[in-house]
Amino acid sequence: MRLINLVSGKITLDDIDLSTVSGSVIREKLICLTQDPFLFPASVRSNIDPFTKSSDEDIVTALQKVGLWSIFVDKSTNSSTSPKEVLDSLMDADVLSHGQRQLFCLARAMLKAGKVLILDEPTSSVDTQTDARMQEIIRDEFKDHTVIMIAHRLSSLLTFDRVVVLDDGRLVEFGKPMELLKNSSSSFAKMYNSIMSA
Fold first, then answer.
1. Which residues of 106-130 are buried (b: 16+ CB within 10 A; e: fewer)?
2. Among 79, 120, 178, 187, which lies 20 to 30 A Cα-Cα from 22?
């Protein structure tokens, strides 16, 4: 995301050294979902589509996919309220639980253009049901994306192509998750098995 500069090495994306691209351009092109859902005092539309690049229909569809559209409609006092009126209403974050806020941010990510999705512990503070729902949506909606996930909930990594294990900032293991689980001396297998037996 170019929030800090590299001290050594380099990061390339489609053979482009990211240090040669401005941080604002990188942040515009990458899709990021963190563990802390960020909502601000503005309309539902401004929160989910801050650069007004999506149609009302696309926004409603994204909110339906994460199961939140009905909450915003129900919040409206008028049963005949149009989608535009619902989207232009003030966002009341207190109506949403932490998990629902995270789902809202996932809907926001679904609307953003880009081919790389970075997930930084997106399910660390949600219950297992919301975690499972988020994982399913990520698999369905971002199947044509490169997805990089930072996770301590190791079960969420089993369907990924590769796992990178870091220890004290250093790469100690790299491989296919299911193959690493078969190796009893694997760091990933040891962490996974200790969590599952707890």
1. bbbbbbbeeebbbbebbbbebeeeb
2. 120
Q: How far apart are CA 40 and CA 27, in angstroms?
A: 19
| Long-range Cβ pairs for the range 38-41 (8 Å, 24+) | 38/105, 39/91, 39/93, 39/101, 39/104, 39/105, 40/91, 41/90, 41/91
> Which tokens is 28 given?
């515009």
Residues in the chain where the model's pLDDT stays below 50: none
pLDDT tens-digit readout, 166-197: 989 899 999 999 999 999 899 999 999 888 87
Q: Is the pTM of this model over 0.85?
A: yes
- d(CA 151, CA 86) in angstroms, rounded, equals 34
Altogether, the residues listed in the chain come to a count of 198
